[in-house]
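so the lab meeting is tmrw and i was supposed to have these ready like two days ago... anyway. pasting both below. for each one the top line is the aa sequence and the line under it is the structure tokens. i havent really looked at them closely yet so no promises
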Amino acid sequence: MQLTLLTISEPNRFNIVELLKKGPRSVGDIVQALSIGQPQVSRHLRILSEAGLVKVRRQAQLRIYSLEAQPFQELDSWFDSFSELWEERLDQFEDYMSEIHGKEQP
């Protein structure tokens, strides 16, 4: 999970992940969509692949990239683990605000 966060923290890799959320894309499609050079896109895709975030398949002469679901599911589960904590804190804040507003009224 830490590797996932570190890998997608780079803006171009984040943008590639955002594109791939919409579906598989070729390197050329990614280059056009992001307006960055093919060597940079290929380097970022290699890093994403080494981190296990994308997979590649050949289709004739094209390489088609798509997201690997598991690392993002793990990330989602980790973020969900904070929901109980935040709900509790928001409930405490709501109680505090009610208490303050109750004291202000004559």
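ok protien two:
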Amino acid sequence: MNSSSGALSALVEKTVEGLGYEFVDCERLARGLVRVTIDTTAEGGISLEDCERVSDQLTHLFTVEDIAYDRLEVSSPGVERPLKRARDWKRFEGELAALELFAPLQAEGFPEAGRRKLEGRIIGISGESGAEEIEFDYFEVDVARTPRAAALRAKKKKTVESAPVRVVFPLSDVERAHLIKELNFKG
């Protein structure tokens, strides 16, 4: 079976969720690499043993289904977890996120040309399946993402934060999105 990306993704999703994990993504990349990303709502997140368990199951599945691949990589989504589906946006309501839209968004409080890249807080998601809308508070997120940024942030004086700009846009307009986590580099 030489699966298309969509068929492969659906097959992997069914298997991953059957094992009790949350399916995040499946990518077919160059040189025969299939990358599968899994998550869990359980305390502690995804462990190496979880990845091994899913990898073993997918290896057997690919053999049975005659799916051609050279390497299989199973991993957790990491701290800046991608937001792919409506359920991801619902699960992470109230969290900080960065996103890029397919086209600039026009909203009061934006520069005249609009914005494609937004950072802020996920307020909520509503609407029927296939027509979901994201409610999002746009503002400049000031979190340390690297040790250097943490050091610079510590030296910088606090500035007055501007009020967030509340925007609403269709989920289908989102090209890519991920969570933003503030990391503690002090140990």
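from a quick look at the 2nd one: DSSP finds four helices and eight strands in the chain. The radius of gyration is 19 Å. will dig more after coffe
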